[in-house]
Amino acid sequence: xxxxxxxxxxxxxxxxxxxxxxxxxxxxxxxxxxxxxxxxxxxxxxxxxxxxxxxxxxxxxxxxxxxxxxxxxxxxxxxxxxxxxxxxxxxxxxxxxxxxxxxxxxxxxxxxxxxxxxxxxxxxxxxxxxxxxxxxxxxxxxxxxxxxxxxxxxxxxxxxxxxxxxxxxxxxxxxxx
Length: 177
Hints:
Strand content: under 5%
Mean pLDDT: 82
CATH superfamily of the largest domain: RNA polymerase sigma factor, region 2, helix turn helix motif
Shape: globular
Radius of gyration: 18 Å
Number of domains: 2
Number of strands: 0
Low-confidence stretches: none
Structural class: mainly alpha
CATH class of the largest domain: Mainly Alpha
Largest sheet: none
CATH topology of the largest domain: Rna Polymerase Sigma Factor, Chain: A
Order of helices and strands: HHHHHHHHH
Number of helices: 9
């Protein structure tokens, strides 16, 4: 597969060609599945994430710019967001009454709750920008347009917020040991 082939699949997909979606699925569904499988608890969950990725890709094909990036990288970015959605949904399914019990039995759930709590602690507009980027599957450009902010400001907020989250979570993790 040459880079030209990848670019052509991207152009066709962006133009709404359903056969390009089928081609993308044939070429990169295994990659998407493998990344998802490393991030979710089971093969069935990874299959669900994979399906969600390609549905999202089709629905957001108008936002894909084949000149700015290639299809596999775009699909992996969507995969990261769908995995985050998966974990957020699981966190939301844990009732507040059972959260302490669930955290004792599953460190993954307690980590997800910790991340969600730390995101809630971010000030505005950082909290909103992080949620738009990682939960609503918006690109940096789309966030800038939606919030009427310069693109560089959005990118700076995301970078600083991720650094802040990392530092806070490292401190929280160290304190728990």
